[in-house]
Structure to design on (673 residues):
């Protein structure tokens, strides 16, 4: 499975990049999907020198040359771009259309976009305000502030610091992440209590992006402040900052609704206004100008126009407490790290923090150059062709950085090619994502999404699923032991090494909130996927002998060679194979419908999920018994070697299907995911 598919899945879940929009296993995804590069993006990958002066004239000229072609070539209807510097908005521009049908252009002052997980930054601001007021402590068990319990894992409870750094250890949650029927919207507390996702990592040990945990933080703000979350952020963030056209409310207030951009999917309007279930994780609607004001306030350490939303000390703690200073095990080498809510997007040797965000239709990127006092924000109202918006926003950020804040020099590859090739060999194998689901049927996506690392003919690192903007696998050069850099870009890939062996790895654009660990042998796709494919072939051929055999006997007027119990056992094995394929086909259909339309990833599909799980237990078990019965008679009678071998293969295939179904949640007997 391509990394773009993985991030699509993470998008289903509101990723940090990786935003919201698709399923649970994580999200390396659309962020790596190929996209048509804008003219400026075709320039040299590594730009060095002093850089252009960041002023309105040069910036507008650059955007005028970049954006129209970028939108047209990627089939994205509209976008908003806002850049700030030294306490002022340098430019805020709308490009393309907010509503194609009504020929309505994007207005940076009035048109509302959905920045998805960029909303989390406001939630973290609210948390830090309560920390500043001594109502919250970042290192206290969060159960202290809740009216329901989050179980500890291995005796270790969850704290707000771990929630803000995405190291609470929760598995992915996808159900009710985004839907369109506002009548289905629950209160924040009720939605969180409906299902507490399992903890798959001990708190503080592993970055695993979690929308559920962010919503939990918003609920804690509600409880300690005594204000509903929507009300709180309006009174304590948006009003003080003059963000008059920004809200977390769902659906939109009547006065704001006419200014909402249409969201597009596959060139057509999406299902309507997206309702985000875990609202504090991504329900904000805002304009380009308002986001400019928010960036300035953060760059000025909590102050704008003489009004403060947090003290300088609180802001400094929020922006400069990298995860490595709390738990070194949660970071990989020199890669970007989580701060308190923001994550590093460092580039060209400069300190940059920010966030990404996605809904089904909207895709957003925000970056703050802290020492330079500059901020960059872009949001698109469609994913475009093949998820192009995800690559485009990354390329825009990199091209903007290269133009105005280039690096002083670029690193060179290590000279010892033999030693480098040996490190690549150690990296080779199958890896899986820390942002995933383990307890439900969505775990099956993890099997498909296991990522392979290998060496090419020259001994260089290859990750086939990681493709560049040109649609080809990225090429990497090792710049330090177990640290590689994209030859055509800025991204680095690095491994965490224990006793001379790599145990996990990540990349700059995902390392703050997502990592890859070695796949345990018992669920490795290296053997399980070929076994499943072979098993499905055997089951299919076994079942097809039933209709084709009947037709052949009828045509050539020959009798069935089996009688009595042997015949019944053979028929049972054929029926078991057919029913197994039917149940698996039901799962494929259900998951495809869920990934294709988020309205299906709600309680609406619960009856079907129960049916498939119950049917799976009955059918997969019965198929094994039928295969055993058939093999017994096949080996006890004088039949050909080929038939005996086939009976063994049929039993093995039935066992493999049952094993995979049990290990990957198809028999979990729950409808939470």
């Amino acid at each position: 499975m391509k990394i773009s598919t993985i991030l699509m899945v993470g998008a289903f879940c509101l990723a940090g990049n990786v935003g919201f929009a698709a399923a649970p296993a994580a999200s390396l995804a659309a962020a790596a999907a190929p996209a048509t590069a804008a003219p400026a993006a075709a320039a040299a990958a590594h730009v060095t020198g002093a850089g252009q002066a960041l002023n309105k004239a040069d910036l507008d000229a650059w955007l005028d040359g970049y954006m129209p072609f970028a939108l047209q070539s990627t089939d994205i209807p509209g976008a908003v771009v806002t850049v700030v510097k030294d306490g002022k908005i340098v430019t805020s521009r709308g490009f393309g259309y907010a509503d194609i049908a009504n020929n309505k252009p994007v207005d940076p002052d009035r048109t509302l976009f959905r920045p998805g997980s960029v909303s989390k930054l406001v939630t973290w601001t609210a948390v830090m305000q309560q920390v500043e007021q001594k109502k919250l402590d970042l290192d206290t068990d969060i159960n202290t502030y809740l009216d329901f319990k989050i179980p500890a894992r291995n005796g270790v409870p969850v704290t707000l610091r771990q929630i803000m750094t995405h190291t609470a250890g929760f598995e992915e949650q996808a159900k009710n992440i985004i839907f369109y029927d506002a009548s289905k919207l629950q209160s924040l507390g009720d939605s969180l209590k409906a299902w507490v996702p399992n903890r798959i990592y001990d708190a503080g040990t592993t970055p695993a992006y979690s929308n559920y945990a962010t919503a939990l933080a918003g609920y804690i703000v509600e409880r300690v402040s005594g204000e509903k979350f929507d009300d709180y952020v309006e009174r304590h963030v948006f009003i003080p900052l003059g963000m008059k056209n920004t809200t977390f409310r769902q659906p939109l207030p009547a006065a704001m609704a006419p200014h909402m951009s249409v969201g597009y999917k596959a060139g057509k309007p999406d299902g309507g206004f997206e309702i985000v279930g875990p609202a504090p994780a991504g329900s904000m609607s805002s304009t380009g100008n308002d986001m400019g004001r928010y960036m300035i306030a953060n760059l000025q350490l909590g102050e704008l126009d003489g009004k403060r939303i947090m003290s300088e000390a609180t802001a400094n703690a929020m922006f400069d407490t990298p995860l490595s200073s709390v738990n070194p095990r949660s970071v990989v080498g020199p890669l970007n790290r989580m701060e308190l809510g923001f994550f590093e997007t460092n580039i060209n040797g400069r300190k940059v923090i920010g966030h990404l965000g996605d809904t089904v239709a909207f895709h957003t990127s925000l970056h703050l150059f802290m020492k330079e006092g500059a901020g960059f924000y872009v949001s698109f109202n469609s994913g475009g062709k093949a998820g192009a918006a995800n690559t485009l926003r990354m390329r825009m950020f990199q091209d903007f950085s290269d133009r105005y804040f280039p690096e002083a020099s670029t690193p060179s590859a290590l000279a010892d090619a033999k030693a480098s090739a040996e490190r690549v060999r150690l990296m080779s194998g199958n890896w899986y994502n820390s942002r995933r689901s383990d307890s439900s049927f969505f775990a099956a996506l993890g099997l498909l999404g296991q990522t392979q690392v290998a060496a090419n003919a020259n001994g260089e690192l290859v990750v086939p699923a990681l493709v560049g903007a040109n649609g080809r696998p990225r090429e990497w050069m090792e710049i330090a032991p177990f640290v590689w850099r994209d030859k055509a870009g800025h991204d680095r890939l690095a491994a965490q090494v224990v006793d001379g062996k790599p145990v996990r790895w990540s990349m700059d654009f995902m390392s703050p909130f997502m990592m890859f660990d070695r796949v345990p042998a018992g669920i490795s796709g290296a053997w399980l996927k070929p076994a499943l494919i072979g098993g499905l072939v055997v089951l299919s051929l076994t079942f097809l002998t039933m209709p084709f055999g009947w037709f052949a006997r009828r045509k050539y007027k020959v009798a069935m060679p089996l009688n009595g119990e042997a015949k019944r056992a053979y028929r049972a094995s054929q029926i078991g194979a057919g029913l197994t394929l039917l149940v698996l086909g039901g799962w494929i259909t259900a998951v495809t419908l869920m990934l294709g339309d988020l309205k299906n990833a709600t309680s609406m599909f619960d009856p079907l999920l129960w049916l498939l799980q119950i049917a799976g237990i009955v059918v997969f078990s019965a198929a094994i018994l039928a295969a055993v019965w058939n093999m017994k008679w096949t080996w006890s009678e004088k039949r050909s070697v080929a038939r005996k071998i086939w009976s063994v293969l049929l039993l093995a295939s039935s066992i493999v299907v049952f094993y995979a179904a049990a290990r990957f949640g198809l028999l979990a007997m729950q409808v939470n995911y």
